[in-house]
Structure formats: structure tokens, C-alpha cells
Amino acid sequence: MSLDPAAAAATLAQARATRVPLPPFTATDPTLDARWAYDVQDCDRAARLASGESAVGAKLGLTSPAKQARMGVDEPVVGFLTDALRLDPGVVAGALAGWIQPRIEPEIAFVLGRPVSSRLTLAEARAAVASVGIAAEIIDSRYEDYRFRLADVVADNTSAAGVVLGDLHPGADVPELATLRCTLSVDGEVRHEATGAAILGDPYAALVHLSGHLAARGDALPAGSLVLAGALTDAEPLLAGSSYRLTIASLGTIDVSV
Ligand code: OOG
After folding, report:
1. What SS3 class is residue 178?
2. pTM above 0.90, yes or no
3. Mean predicted lDDT score pLDDT of the chain
4. How confident is the model at residue 1 (pLDDT cuts 50, 70, 90)?
5. Which residue, among 161, 111, 115, 114, has the nearest Cα to 136 in the 3D structure?
6. How far is the CA of 8 from the centre of ligand 1 (A)?
7. To test ligand 1's pocket by mutation, which of 144, 159, 182 has the most ligand atoms within 8 angstroms of CB?
8. Which Pfam family, any one of them, does this sequence belong to (predicted)?
9. For residues 148-164, average pLDDT
């Protein structure tokens, strides 16, 4: 019998609280799968909501070739977002001590203009988006050295640790997202570049994937939800004393200094 999902969620919560990373669950049970892992996520989400956090949306992960290759997992994953994950750029430095091995990565953020509960077409996904912006996602794997398999990273809410959201623009005012250029610079030096097409060929395809995931699990997101489409480039470690600039043409820039 697989490890009880509630027990795994509690073990991950303990790792977050104590900042002591874990060996991956799949090292002891390689049969653990995505279904088990999303059950762990459900336990984690229920515990966080019971402790007073509010659900604010969802995040996709591993939607770009750069991330899939780096992390060795070749399919997109979905996590949940609560208000506790929303950060102002100015507080990231102060939050550093609360993480284990944080990294930062550039993302496209959507705010939904309508609820999503069934699988959308690409055209429906576009129409479901009210506004679009740039986000900086902070990830912090609760597994030693970010070594995990699909079931581990899903159980760990896809490494979610924080979100800095930039200005939002009405979806209709933004050029074709697949064409937008993105850079991630550290201390003034460009480390990573990509276009929006890095995300499943078209960032709206991430929303299609999410809608299929929600439909399959009988889950839904209300209008107003925040959705992160997944990193366009590989992530950079967040190191004290460094400055990070994330830019997506037409969407904006986020500066974070730690
Ligand atoms: C997994 C989460 C990846 C993304 O946007 O690709 C992710 C990880 O890299 O630890 O959030």
C-alpha cells in the first residue's frame, strides 16, 4: 500500500517549517504516481485553507523545454496558489531565511475573466483571460538538491514558494504572447532568454492543459483567479547580495534584490 497522502502532506509541511529537505518519496516507493501526488496536494491545500489561507488560483510547472530538461520531468504539472504565496518585491530579501534553496523564474500570469471547470479549446482559453502580466515565481523544492520525480514534485505543490506579480494588462491589448521576448538577468548580466512560444508553443496552451486537469479532477477555478503559465526559462538560485531583473516585452519588468 502506498504512503498515506495525508501523512506525505504532513511530512512536506514539516520540511517547509523546519527547512530540512527530504529524500524524494519515490526513492522508497517508485510506484507512486500522479494520482497519489494530487491527493497529497489536496490534503496540503485543505490544511492550508483550514489554517486561514485563501485560495487565489493555480500554477503550471514544467511547461517549457528548458525546465523539463533541467528537472528531468517531461510533462506539465499543476499546483495551487494561496494568498500567503503573494509577495511584494521588497519583502523577498526578508523572506530568504524562510526557504531551503529558493530559485526565481520568469512567468506569464493570467487573471481569469470567467470560471473554468471544463476542458477549453485554445480559443476558449484566450477568451477566458481578462488580463495578462509578468510574474516572478519563487520555487523552493522541499527535496534535497531538487532531486525528484513527477509524483514527488506534484506532491510538493510543484515547488511553489512565492509569487511577485507585475502590472496587469487587458488581454485584448497584449500582442501575441508566443512572440514576446523574455530575459532573466542577474546582477546586470543576461543569463536566460526565451520567447513566449517556449511555453507549450503558446502560453494559452498552458491554460488549456490546466482546464483539462481541473475537469478530470472535478475541480474548478472561479473568475478572478490567478494562473501562472509556467517558467519560460530555467530558474536562477536566489542568493543574498544579488539583483534579479525579469522582463517580458510588452508585459513589463520585475526587479528583485536580495
Ligand atoms: C518544479 C516547478 C517548476 C515551472 O514553472 O516550470 C515550475 C521545479 O523546478 O522545482 O514551477
Report:
1. helix
2. yes
3. 96
4. low
5. 161
6. 20
7. 159
8. FAA_hydrolase
9. 97
Question: How many domains does the chain fold into?
Answer: 1
**For 248, what's the count of Cα atoms within 13 Å in the CB-facing half-sphere?**
32
**CATH number for 80:** 3.90.850.10
Q: Which domain holds residue 155?
A: 5-257
Residues contacting residue 67 through CB under 8 Å, at least 6 positions apart: 61, 105, 230, 231, 234, 235
In this prediction, residue 2 carries a pLDDT of 79
Q: For residue 68, what are the CA distances in angstroms to 61, 87, 183?
A: 9, 26, 18
Is any ligand 1 atom within 6 A of the Cβ of residue 15? Answer: no
157 in Cβ contact with 141 (< 8 Å): no
Region 69-75 average pLDDT: 87
pLDDT band at 135 (very low <50, low <70, confident <90, very high): very high
